Amino acid sequence: MTAGNADLFFDIFNGVGTKYRTKFLDHEISKNKIKELEKSWKINSTIKYVVTGRKLKNFNKSLIHVDSFQKLFHMRVFFFLGLNALQLRYNKLAMAFLMKLIKKLITEWTKIKSFFGNF
Questions:
Q1: Do the Cβ atoms of 52 and 80 come closer than 8 Å?
Q2: Distances in whole angstroms, Cα of residue 76 to Cα of each of 1, 73, 101
């Protein structure tokens, strides 16, 4: 499945249930494949499933290869990636993801504040 295209991967991985994912799809993914997958916005759901499921012990190791400067990530994905890095004892990487989250939150708060003004 990891040799196929990204859309097929996401359709299968994000479309099946937790038990199926754990039993059949818990494999480490190569760094090159992660780089290919992170070009799609669908990786947001995949990261959420992997980190919150906590049973995909092999797959979550692959997430350390995710680029922290990826623009397609939703803010909560940086939180999930930070948690995953902490669980795997990659403390510096966890801090990088969490700092990226904080920067995105500050930027978002500034936009909201400028739109609504001071209340």
A1: yes
A2: 27, 8, 8
